[in-house]
Design brief:
The protein is an all-alpha fold and 74 residues long. It has three helices and no strands. It has one domain. Helix 1 crosses helix 2. It starts with 15 loop residues before the first helix and ends with a helix.
C-alpha cells in the first residue's frame, strides 16, 4: 500500500470472517493492509461506476461509426 500524507486512526468492529476473506483475497499481511486494500477497491469501483454512468452522455463525442470511418481513413 502507498503512504498517505494525512492519516486517520479509528476503531471499527469488522466480522472476523469478512476480514479473513479480504486478507486472503488481497494477500494482505496485516489487518491494516487488508482494510486499506478494501477501501482502495471500493474507491476504484465507485470511480468506474461513475465513468460508466456517463457513457453515451457526451454530445460532442464521436459515434462508433464515425470512429470506425476515421480509423479506416488512416
Amino acid at each position: 500500500m502507498g503512504h498517505y500524507a494525512v492519516t486517520m486512526t479509528t476503531t471499527v468492529d469488522v466480522p472476523k470472517e469478512m476480514l479473513e476473506r479480504v486478507m486472503k483475497t488481497t494477500r494482505a499481511r496485516t489487518e491494516e493492509e487488508a482494510v486499506l486494500a478494501a477501501l482502495a477497491a471500493f474507491n476504484e469501483r465507485s470511480s468506474l461506476e461513475f465513468a460508466v454512468s456517463r457513457l453515451g452522455t457526451f454530445e460532442d463525442f464521436m459515434t462508433p461509426g464515425e470512429l470506425k470511418a476515421q480509423r479506416e481513413q488512416g
